[in-house]
Design goal:
Strand content: under 5%
Protein name: Integrase catalytic domain-containing protein
Order of helices and strands: HHEEHH
Number of strands: 2
GO molecular function, one term: nucleic acid binding
Helix content: 40-55%
Amino acid sequence: MANNRVMWRFNPPAAPHFDGLWEAAVKSTKHHLRRVIGDTMLTYEEMVTLLTQIEACLNSRPLSALTDDPEDLSALTPGHLLIGAPLTALPELSLREVPAARLSR
């Protein structure tokens, strides 16, 4: 294995401090789960929905500013790297149901 440059890293299950960055993400996920669920038992569908919402929140944390403009408050997030847009952005308003007369105001 040394010839193939394989390097083993031991991570004991009871020592989360060995892997700092991804353990911080696990800690954040557990924190949000405890805050929302408490002692409640969820169905599979409810749990998947909740984990998806927590994932969207965690992947929407700002990494850096998108532009140098101090007036622009948008930030680069992990969601931008995953899908090209923030995961918790509000959906665009559909103008199909708005009468044409109201669009010109």
